[in-house]
Amino acid sequence: MAVSSSGRAGQLPEVRDEAADEEEEAGRKRKAHGMLKLYYGLPANGEEKDPLDPTDVDGAHFNPELFLHKLRKECPLPQLMDCEADMVKQIRALDSDMQTLVYENYNKFISATDTIRKMKNDFKKMEDEMDCLATNMAVITEFSARISNTLQDQHEQITKLSGVHTLLRKLQFLFELPARLNKCIELEAYGQAVRYYGKARSILHQYQHMPSFQGIQNDCQKIMASLSQRLREKFRDGGSSAQALAECVELLLQLDEPAEELCDEFLSHAHSRLEEELAALQKDLELPATSITGPSPPSDILDFIDRGCNGFVSSLCLVIASYQDLFINNPSQETPRSYGIAHMAQEKLVTFVNNLTSHYFSMVERRLQLERGLGDNSLLVRALDRFHRRLQALAKLLPTSDVATAGTEIVVRAAEERVRQYLQALRCFFLDCLTDVRQALAAPRLAGKDSPNLAELLASVSASILNQIKSVLTYVHLFTAKDITFSNKPYFKGEFCSQGVREGLIVGFIKSICQTARQFCETAGDRGGSTPPALLLLLSRLCLDYETATISYILTLTDEQFLVQDRSPVTAVTSLCSEAREAAQKLLNHYVKVQGLIVSQMLRKSVETRDWINTIEPRNVRAVMKRVVEDTTSIDVQVGLLYEEGVRKAHSSDSSKRAFSVYSSSRMQTRYAPSYTPSAPMDTNLLSNIQKLFSERIDIFSPVEFNKVSVLTGIIKISLKTFLECVRLRTFGRHGLQQIQVDCHYLQLYLWRFVSDENLVHFLLDEIVGSAAHRCLDPMPMEQSVIEVICERG
Amino acid sequence: MSGSSRTDSPKGRDHLLVALQLKLSEIQDPIRSASREDLQEVKLAEARALTPQTAETDAIRFLVGTQSLKYDNQIHIIDFDDENNIINKNVLLHHVGEIWQISASPADKGILATCYNQTSDSKVMTCAAVWRMPKELESGSHESPDDSSSNPQTLELLCHLDNTAHGNMACVVWEPVGDGKKLISLADNNVLLWDLQESSTQAVLSSTAALEGKGQLKFTSGRWSPHHNCTQIATANDIAIRGWDIRSMSQIYCIENAHGQLVRDLDFNPNKQYYLASCGDDCKVKFWDTRNVNEPVKSLEEHSHWVWSVRYNHSHDQLVLTGSSDSRVILSNMVSISSEPFGHLVDDDELSDQEDHHQEEKTKEPLQDSIIATYEEHEDSVYAAEWSSADPWLFASLSYDGRLVINRVPRALKYHILL
């Protein structure tokens, strides 16, 4: 370094710069070095030396002049001495080190030279050997080329020969093919035969222009035709097993037989077998139709369905399964063609199944229609369940067919039909009940006993109807039992419960009860009709009971049993109740009308047929009046059996004693003597008008309330009003009037107790006597006391 | 109102005027007259017989016959002055007996026929006679009522309808159109056809027919059909209605069980030739097509007691008037079986106001059969209700206590029918 710096002394300024750069760099290195030192914990070189310090002996910028100058200036003599000694020591040490190094390097250099010389010799030898090898290789190559030249011809011949050999083997196979095939057929190894033929077919087809090959092909085709013929025969043969059939079909398919034809054949074959089963069922079905004597089918429905399921449905399932294996799910062929076949085959199968099942379904439906026994329902439900279950299996096999829906529809229809039948049965039962009641009402009269106890009759009718409803509900409930497969179909969960059972059956029945009851009012004929009044009364009470309790009970029962999930609107209890009440009201009104008519007919005849002018002085109450009172009493008893007493207006205890003189004295007097003189009329008319002002208008044929008093009041009103109107149409003599007086007093004595408001009776009787007096040629009323005596005498 | 002037004048036996006054004063009550302007009432003695004066087509006039066993019976000629709401009354004496039925000649205003009871010592016989009323009363008298009441005039007997051989007369009906020379009377079970000759002074029995059957058959009522050239009548006996051809006097149809009980009255639809209304003790009013006697066309059951009278309105046959012994009169609108089921087809000329027309069209839907009104002014059985022959919107009803009530069809309905 010192050399270079001195060498470049002439260009100092530049060098300075360079030197400064270098110094910088060196400074950096030193610094890094220092840091390393620091890191390794080496003691720093005393105090931090200035790297540019020219006084540092080891520094790069050492300047001896400066160093000496510095030493001289700064150090005392001993130190200079020490320094000098130290310096000398160091120089010496350095000299010796240098000598050692030079020596060692020299030695190494000499040994290296020796080695190189040795190597030179060895390489020469090796080169010679390599040359020798190259010549040898050339010789070998030459030999080899010569040999292959000589062998080439023969090799070609061998290759040709081996080609010929294989060809010949193939040809042999072809020539032998007919024989082989025959043999295979003889051995019934049809599969083998088909495989052989499959191998040869294309070749034969390719070389069919050559006569010999054509011959072979013809032979083969003949054989194969016969084979396929045999296969088909086997296929057609009913006895063969499904496995064998499958094999047949597979082989036939491999023989390129048209799949469609095969499908058809297979299906038609299956069809004939299934038809047999259906025919058997049909026979079973037609037996009852032909034999008129036996109204019930020979086998029960469960048996029929069982046979249908086990026979027809299971065979059908088998057929479907094997068919699908053969034609549709055939895994060996995954070509587009097979896909097409599968599609076609599927369609064929669906139509096939639909045809057969529709036939079957129609039979099942016919059989179901025969099922009319209204007793236990469980057999039918079980049969339907089984039917449905089997069809589910069938549907699973063949999801595209409509078997499942059709089957469910049949079940639904059967259930609906069943509900209808039950409704019909309930109606019949109700009518039967009514007939029984009629008989019960008529019978004792013939026997001359007491009239039947209406309350008991009502209770028994009501109870038996309720029982019948309950049992029908139980029967119907089987349709929705948990273990029945179709019970969780939406129809059976919803519509069947709400529309079928609740609306169709129960509500329908209640409505029909009301309607039947109402019909008694309409068809019974206006002349009283053939309906016994007691029946009307009983029905009215029945309807009323329905209104108050039974309807809501029945509907609650139904709703509980059939947890209706359907939200479709249903008939409200209240509307049914009001219908029942309406019917009850109508019946009771009709009852009042009929009974009133019976009584009023008696009165009417008695008034119309008598010569009231030339009658004798009254000595007795006329028999008809006694009859009227008797009849009214018996009606009272009859109504009392079914209806409560009802309220009456308070009346005095001695009503019966009420003097007739009330009108016979004051009012009658004026009425008897209405004068056309100007003084009197004012009073007469005022009196009668005022009296009428205070008496309320009486509606004769008016609706009655549901109690005894109201009913009796109605009947008596009708009777007395008839009496009044009849009296007004007649002309009376003196005794005629007196007879009317007596009769009215008698009625007065006995009728007041039946009615709600005795004033009503009084008023009407007053009117009757008043009208009679008015229609009297010689109005001379009888003494009240005499009247009383006559009435008391009976 | 002139009714008040009448209050002072009750004299003689005219006690009816009191009632009239009584009722009239009631009507004069401002509130009531305001609300019930359609109403007029007259009070009479006991009465069953009522007829419009059929031949009179200008004035509203009714004839009422009284029933009294003890006093001279009267025929009251009731004039109703529509404009002033005044009732005028003239009284004619009918000496022979109590009047059960009355009918006015359709041709001569002055002639009328009555069925009346003749009582001898121990026998009552219902007879019939044709009468002429005094000339001055024929077309109503507006002279002072004092005169008429003080000096009641008497009917002039034209002829008796001799029924000694035939039994009690139930009713007399005039030939509905024609010269008023033909009468039918029903006597027990006989139909008697009379010819009036020599200006009605002689009644000749021209033909008879008898109803044969078991039991005592009695006609209760009969009507003469205005159709078929007046050759048919209908009669009621018990529960049956029979039609007769009066040319041959033979039965042409028979509705065996027309009503559940006695048939009380009949009427022919004036505009529909086969239609017939009947009423009876089963409280029903039934409408029949005589070509089908098995089933009534329609049946009403509105009354609560026997229905004694049924009448078609002469011009608007959907209006049917019934009177019953439940003291009610019911006016029904039987549109569905009327000859004009959807209202009149009238020109719009009558409608002065376009707006009216507009409103009318809105409400002009086919009407349902309905009850128009129930009149409850009577307090006793109503045995007769009749339409006026002059005013098709006016009718009278008579109850047994002698109250005659004149009512009008409600105005709203009237306009509805007319427009």
Automatic annotation (TrEMBL), chain A:
Residues 1-31 are annotated as: Disordered. Coiled coil: none annotated. GO terms for cellular component: cytosol; EARP complex; GARP complex; membrane. It comes from the Eukaryota. It is found in: Golgi apparatus, trans-Golgi network; Recycling endosome. Residues 60-285 form the Exocyst complex component EXOC2/Sec5 N-terminal domain. InterPro entries: Cullin_repeat-like_dom_sf (IPR016159), EXOC2/Sec5_N_dom (IPR039481), Vps51 (IPR014812). Keywords: Coiled coil, Endosome, Golgi apparatus, Lipid transport, Protein transport, Transport. Signal peptide: none annotated. GO terms for biological process: endocytic recycling; Golgi organization; Golgi vesicle transport; lipid transport; lysosomal transport; protein transport; retrograde transport, endosome to Golgi. Involved in retrograde transport from early and late endosomes to the late Golgi. The GARP complex is required for the maintenance of protein retrieval from endosomes to the TGN, acid hydrolase sorting, lysosome function, endosomal cholesterol traffic and autophagy. Acts as component of the EARP complex that is involved in endocytic recycling. Component of the Golgi-associated retrograde protein (GARP) complex. Component of the endosome-associated retrograde protein (EARP) complex. Belongs to the VPS51 family. This is Vacuolar protein sorting-associated protein 51 homolog. It comes from Geotrypetes seraphini (Gaboon caecilian). The lineage of its organism: Eukaryota, Metazoa, Chordata, Craniata, Vertebrata.
UniProtKB/TrEMBL annotation, chain B:
Belongs to the WD repeat EIPR1 family. This is EARP-interacting protein homolog. It comes from Geotrypetes seraphini (Gaboon caecilian). WD repeats lie at residues 256-292. Keywords: Repeat, WD repeat. PANTHER family: EARP AND GARP COMPLEX-INTERACTING PROTEIN 1, WD-REPEAT PROTEIN. May act as a component of endosomal retrieval machinery that is involved in protein transport from early endosomes to either recycling endosomes or the trans-Golgi network. InterPro entries: Beta-prop_EIPR1-like, EIPR1, WD40/YVTN_repeat-like_dom_sf, WD40_repeat_CS, WD40_rpt. SMART domains: WD40. The gene is EIPR1. Residues 46-331 form the EIPR1-like beta-propeller domain. One of its GO terms (biological process) is regulation of cellular localization.
